[in-house]
Amino acid sequence: MTTQTKPRGSSPLLGIYFGIFVAGLAGLVVLLLIFEQLGTTDHMLRTLLLAGSLGLFGVIGTAAYTAAQVEFFLAGRRVPSFFAGLILSIVVLGGTGFAAFTGALFLIGFDALCVMLGIVAGIVALAMLIAPYLRKFGAGSVPAFLGLRFDSRAVRLMAASIAVPAFLLAATAEIKIAVFAAGWLTGLTEAETALLIVAVVTITVAPGGMRSLTWSSAGQAIAAFIALLVPIGIAAAMITYLPLGQLSHGPVLRILDRTEANAGVSAAIAPPLAFEFPGDQLAAIVGRFPTPYSSVGAIAFMLATIAIMVGVAGSPTLLARSATTSSIYETRKALGWTVFLVGTAILSFSTIAVFARDWVMANAVGVAPDRLPVAVAYLADVGLVSVEGRPATIHYDSLLFKRDGVLLMLPVMLGMPTVLVHLVAAGLLAAALAAVAASTMGLGVVLVEDVSLALVNDRPRPGMHILLVRGAIGLAAAVTGWLAVVLPGDPLALLLWSLAVSGSGLFPALLLSVWWKRFGKVGVMAAMLVGMIAVFVAFVVDGLGPNHSPAVLVAAIAAPLAVLVGVVVSLLTPAPGRHVLEMVRDLRVPGGETIADREARRALHRRLERR
Question: DSSP class of residue 270?
Fold first, then answer.
């Protein structure tokens, strides 16, 4: 694809545009709160909130239509650092992070932090080791970077073959979460809801490609964070009298620890390699909240953190966004904003888990089944809570909770207006849509750029080129929607396998490509092959083993092994040519023309000379 070396600056009106968006969203919520007080039916409130939010996202996506290649593939390379960081934060968390991480914290407490620590560490590794250098290179995808870095179509195709399953697994996980959230708001069947999501993703991405994805995802991220933070502020004001639950839930946690000890909640320590993460089925609370290593053993906790870290650092979805900022400096700033926003979200998940668990221990545990609060009966009616057996008195392990529904439970428990409950569901849907759109865009670009067009010498006309990618985006959205409906599976497990693929197959190749000049194309192919073999073996073991197998953490072992194999094979094979060495040298120079632009210009000159 053609690019431009000196992109235009970002619009000075971005703040105004998104201020209008926030005002419109806030106005919609206030209006629905008024309608609720006037007696409007719950179904109408859900429908209006869903239609209003999806309508805003769709308007942003279609308004960002473009036929310019640099805008379609790279968002014009002029996305400000804050917006880039905002988008990265919502993509790396997604709806799976909002729902599954909150639920995992609620059910197993401290041990769920291994995944979130891995995400933060992965963003830091991304900022320090890979993303700024890919921005200097200027390629729009990871396979394009590796193919040009080693001057090899075989490397590019092999990298694409690894990126495709990573995209598919992540997108399928997010669509499952989106189906859950949209189903709460619509009451449609799973297939109908998946079809709606596919249509929304296509409308918000296909018109302008990366440009539409950028600005619609920014709106979705704002909506998701509003839906996350507003109920927490209200809950914190009700419980701690300070509307900053992220800073004030510590005393509640200390009270919760004493309450759980009095209720007989187990404080047993799991074996070192245990990895008993809660699935998407109904499950009971396991272990005291602040007690470490009750479900995830000490060694498994460390392996999980490392595996998630390398998976995030090698994620093709996140790395594709490094080329959309205006400079390397802006890329680093964007990742700084990402760490801040992800950290805020993680503190918010912890706050929700602590408040909800404290409410359960104080109001539902130790009472007779016929005296359970009305909120528990409502949550049981909608399938988020269940009482196991017929106990005379509710014990802490008699209540079963749906992991992905904990995010919706807190407003119900505290008796907030139903509009706020539906707002949380809409925010969860927005987060999932942003992550689905990012994976779908990446998958469409890889299928056209790095698979189809990598096999031919002639490039299509710009208009046809963009049309092909638009078609691939629609196809990718349809395929992932179909997979989400027909394939069983826990969204969190699918996300972890996606990170295992990127961490084992792509991270070692990217790390050595940036930091070792001697790394050759045979070495990079060997490293990627070893990583993927390890993932395949682990997947087979996971399929044959128990439901919660630590095999999903294979990247913690596969990534160092792939690095070692890549180094050894590169030392045993011929060194790269002078041209490749010059590219790697220029890769580490922060200023100047992007390498992809320079190589594209040289290739164009060579074609003109041959004519």
Answer: P
Q: Which domain holds residue 99?
A: 17-486
Measured N-to-C along each axis, helices 555-572 and 507-515 cross at an angle, to the nearest 10 degrees, of 40
Please identify which residue in the block is written with the tokens 């933070």: 229
The per-residue pLDDT for 4 is 45
The Cα–Cα gap between 429 and 94 comes to: 9
User: What DSSP element (H or E) covers 233?
Assistant: helix 210-239
Q: Are 386 and 253 in contact (CB under 8 A)?
A: no
Q: Which one-letter amino acid corresponds to residue 361?
A: M
What CATH number should be reported for the domain holding residue 161?
A: 1.20.1730.10
CA 245 to chain centre: 24
Residue 601, phi then psi, degrees to nearest 5: -65, -40
Domain-located, residue 510: no
Give the three-state DSSP class for 403.
helix
State how many domains the chain has: 1
574 CB-contact burial (10 Å; exposed 0-12 / middle 13-18 / buried 19+): exposed
Q: What type of residue is 439? A: S
Query: If you write DSSP's letter for every residue of 213-229 in order, what string do you get?
Result: HHHHHHHHHHHHHHHHH
Summarize pLDDT for 216-256 with one digit per residue, the tens. 999 999 999 999 999 999 999 999 988 888 888 888 999 99
Q: Which of 583, 533, 581 is nearest to 554 (CA)?
A: 533
Does residue 220 sit within a domain? Answer: yes
H-type helices in 64-99, by residue range? 69-74, 81-96
- Give bridge partners of residue 402 from the DSSP assignment: 282
Task: Give the end-to-end CA distance of the chain in Å, rounded to a whole number.
Answer: 20
DSSP 8-state secondary structure symbol assigned to residue 294: S
Domain membership flag for residue 284: yes
- DSSP SS3 for 400: strand
Residue 542 lies in a domain: no
Type of residue at 371: R
Give the DSSP H/E element, type plus range, for residue 399. strand 399-402
pLDDT in tens, 50-93: 999 999 999 999 999 988 888 998 888 889 999 999 999 999 99
Secondary structure, 3-state, 357-388: HHHHHHHCCCCCHHHCCHHHHHHHHCCCEEEC
Q: What is the DSSP letter of 275?
A: B
Task: Measure the CA dihedral 352/354/358/359, to 10°.
Answer: 0
The alpha carbon of 500 is separated from its chain's Cα centroid by a whole number of angstroms, namely 14
pTM more than 0.85: yes
C-beta of residue 348 within 8 angstroms of C-beta of residue 245: yes
Residue 231, token pair as written in the block: 């109920």
Judged on CB neighbours under 10 Å (0-12, 13-18, 19+), 434 is buried
DSSP state of 575: P
Length of the chain equals 611
